[in-house]
Design goal:
By secondary structure, the protein is an alpha+beta fold. Helices cover 33% and strands 29% of the residues.
């Protein structure tokens, strides 16, 4: 083979390598594609994967479901206090309210939204509602005082504080701007107690 033939073959091989070099490889443009955030948003239907960046409420709720259901501190508190892990409900049908829990329950619901086309972020309000059942009472009765305390007050406070730390810290870690807003006040309808965490979240817009 002549030197000229060898040079021509080398150029042809190099051309073939360039044509195939992108197969199976994410280019920087693909990794930084704002339409996907550089990740597979569908995750193949796999709920075991935390989705980042969060691009919609579905992603946010799926992530919250995972971190709340797997948090060991929350599980331990509920098992020690109620004898069971907490129930988690995503969304509430107002005509078919969730069953009252024997122990603790977390309900995650969406509220209002602002979706102006062309804005960099969409704002949503969400509520994370905690409900516990606690029948115990503490009585202080002496010659000088007669006090009865429903222990559900302290139990719901401890419970919602754990939930708040899990939700708030994780949402921030997923690249979502989160701001506490006013929700409904704590409420006791014996033997149940209820507390609400209300937030505004700003999720990056793709339209």
């Amino acid at each position: 083979m002549s030197l000229e033939d060898e040079n021509q073959e080398s150029q042809e091989n190099g051309s073939n390598l360039n044509e195939n070099s992108d197969e199976g490889v994410n280019t920087p443009a693909e990794e930084n594609n704002p339409d996907t955030g550089g990740i597979n948003q569908n995750n193949g239907g796999n709920d075991d994967v935390i989705i980042t960046p969060v691009l919609n409420l579905k992603n946010l709720f799926k992530n919250l479901k995972k971190v709340l259901s797997e948090n060991q501190e929350l599980k331990t508190f509920c098992v020690n206090t109620f004898g069971s892990i907490p129930k988690i409900r995503i969304g509430i049908d107002l005509e078919d309210m969730p069953e009252a829990p024997d122990g603790a329950m977390i309900c995650i619901v969406s509220g209002s939204r602002s979706r102006s086309r062309g804005e960099a972020y969409h704002s949503h309000s969400i509520s994370i509602i905690g409900v516990v059942k606690c029948t115990s009472k503490t009585a202080e009765t002496t010659q000088d005082v007669d006090i009865l305390t429903l222990d559900a007050l302290g139990v719901i406070d401890d419970f919602i504080n754990i939930v708040e730390k899990i939700a708030y810290d994780n949402i921030q870690g997923w690249g979502v701007a989160i701001t506490p807003i006013d929700g409904d006040p704590d409420e006791i309808i014996y033997p149940y107690a209820r507390a609400e965490l209300a937030y505004r979240v700003d999720i990056r817009s793709l339209i």
